[in-house]
Amino acid sequence: MTRGGRDKDQDGPERRCIVTGEVQPKGGLIRFVIGPESQVVPDIEGKLPGRGIYVAADRAVLGQAVKRRLFARAAKMPVTVSDGLDDMVHDLLTRRVIELIALARKAGQAVAGYEKTRDWLMSGEAAVLVQAADGSERGKAKLRPPAGKNRHVTCLSAGEIGLAFGREHVIHAALAAGGLSARVVEEAAKLACIRGQNDGPMPSERIDETHERY
After folding, report:
1. Can you tell me which residues the record assigns to a coiled coil (predicted)?
2. Which structural domain, as residue segments, surrounds residue 47?
3. Positive or negative, the Cα torsion across 57, 58, 61, 67?
4. CATH code of residue 99
5. What is the pLDDT of residues 50-81, one digit of tens each?
């Protein structure tokens, strides 16, 4: 297996999941590479050298890849898979989404808090609405995401969104149009799948929006 260099078809828009055999856009897949000590390494940003091995962003599918030793088959060599690989992917994706939102904030492309988010939505400046999975449903229903597909991110908790803005917690945020917002949406969609939130968040606790700090 080639460990140095890049995928020869890296720029292609689609890849095949080693478990399901389905070909789909890279945005719905987790990329893995084989590290220098033959370990399976999640490549969340898609920048690590080596031939990519792709698995659908789904805990059950990822579990099958490990159980059936499909990473070794795809790599055509013995490999080492760390215990809790699915948890590792979850944590890396969570960190990535938070970091991307933080980058958008630093670039002036993101705001937090009900009032600012509402103003951006009303003015048309907001391209994406971000709302905490554990925020009150009644409070969140007061804001509608911009029209169009993939304009609503709901997989993060209030504490996780808060990390991106340097606050204790944030329930409502908005992102302006641009490359950063598109990346947030793509990575958040993977995270939602890993968290089993494909059909919407089902948090055990809800945070009342009146407790949000502005």
Report:
1. none
2. 14-82
3. positive
4. 3.30.1330.30
5. 999 999 999 999 999 999 999 999 999 999 99
